[in-house]
Amino acid sequence: MNSKQVGWVKAIVFVLALIPFARLVWGTASGSFSDPLAAITKGSGEWALYFLCITLAVTPLRRLTGWNWLVKLRRMIGLFMFFYALVHFTAFLWFDHFFDVPAMLADVIKRPFILVGFIAFVLLIPLAATSTNAMIKRLGGKRWQWLHRLIYVIAPLSILHFWWMKEGKNDFARPIIFGSIIALLLAWRVWWNVRGKSQPVRP
Q1: Any residues with CB less than 8 A from the CB of 17 and at least 6 apart, and which?
Q2: Does 200 map to a domain?
Q3: Is residue 198 in some structural domain?
């Protein structure tokens, strides 16, 4: 696939990735949601998990299909993951606590599912901040790769946050589905890395 075709694919993915956010904005503005806070919090959190799964799936899909152009979509998809996580966090800080940071921090400490979600969000910030080519050059390839391995911590924390949030409702079906998908994707990446290191180096 040439660069022009990849550009069109990126534009289509960009528009599609904004549709869930547009639906949240429209539903809130039009009064379609009976509980706008719950709708925004639930929708943005789940879409952050969707984009997390898609981001983790890019490398396995590229290696299985040979579609190397998929790598050019990964950064944008990862930034959309951060965007929806930011909307999720903003809904919590704004609508739940009206930007009262001390009250928010007290709530974070008091409720474990909020604590692990908050840690996952904080760990996402350096990944989003170092997503530009300039930051990659400044950090160097190896340090940048080590930093972005935080995704191996962020993914389980996100699933734990989702699981504990659903625990009070005894609704574990979706956390199990998300957890299984992410566990498989992470296991595949670990297996591939171990397999690559075990292969003899050819001159």
Answers
A1: 51, 76, 77, 80
A2: no
A3: no
